[in-house]
Amino acid sequence: MNLTRLDLNLVVALRALLEERNVTRAGQRVGLSQPAMSAALARLRRHFDDDLLDRVGGHYELTALGQVLLGRTSTAYDVLERLFSSQADFDPAQENREFKLMASDYAVAVFGAELARVVHEEAPGIRLRFAQTPPTVVDDTATLLSATDGLLMPHGVISDFPATDLYEDSWVFLVADDHPDVEDRLTRHDLARLPWVTYQRTYDAPAVRQLGMLGVEPRVEVSVDSFQLLPLMIAGTRRIALIQARLARLLAPVAAVRLMEPPYEAVPLREALWWHPVHTHDAAHIWLRETAARVGSRLVTGQRGPRRHAATCAGAQP
What we know:
The chain is α/β, with parallel strands linked by helices. The protein contains eleven helices and twelve strands. It has helices at residues 9-20, 23-30, 34-48, 64-84, 105-122, 141-146, 188-193, 205-213, 230-234, 245-251, 283-301, and strands at 53-56, 59-62, 97-103, 126-132, 150-154, 163-169, 171-176, 195-199, 219-224, 240-244, 257-260, 269-274. The strands form four sheets. The protein has a five-stranded mixed sheet. Strands 10-7-11 form a three-stranded antiparallel sheet. A hairpin with a 2-residue loop joins β1 (53-56) and β2. α1 crosses α3 (34-48) and α2 packs across α3. The longest helix is centred in the N-terminal third of the chain and has 21 residues, at 64-84. It is globular, with a radius of gyration of 24 Å. Residues 305-318 have low confidence and may be disordered.
């Protein structure tokens, strides 16, 4: 395809049309008159050889191709916006912009909160937007990274993209304070016989793979999409859960649970900030990455890291 023949303004019009599904509202959204937006729709229909919008009764519905283009257009728009907002120089104290970071609730609680505090102190005009990492991250990493400013994720899930290491975390098990079958320590036999609560996505995959190598197949009774829900699903039950130690200490006051060391040498978690190569030399992204690395080093040294709770933990590492 010869991109020089395309009017990139049509990307703006296409996104508005597909999302609004109404010519008049789409025009108002992008500042075009109704005739001008109708002309843009006609050009788009000729280009794609598809109606994109079909009138059904008194409203429009997307065609099959329109449905496909809906997500792709949003991604393309974000990429173009980030491309043309790239800067040679960046003064965080004077800039006014937003960074979007994809992250799990674990990464936001343990790292994102401290990053937000530092950004607030050093760059008051900078906004951070944290969005939940979609389950498609492994299958379509390039598309996801191209439409965001960074991805907080441990090593072992994705690869082949630039990343900067932030901090390490260890793994602990959660059990109820009054668990009838667990005393001072867990055994491998406990891991196999007791019911589990798990995080349903792939970010703890290295830890789960390690259990498989040890011959332990967790008997999952409850699965949740938030790491921070794990303690609530453990308290008052016979269940167990594997959770990051830093988050476990933060959540210790939330529910009546104990933190216990794994009955094996658990592989530590290495959290990193990943980005698309297109951002590598952008001044704003360099500042973001350097700030993130600095915040990560503070967590490692304990400087203004997440508040640690002095709850009784059976064997939990400090």
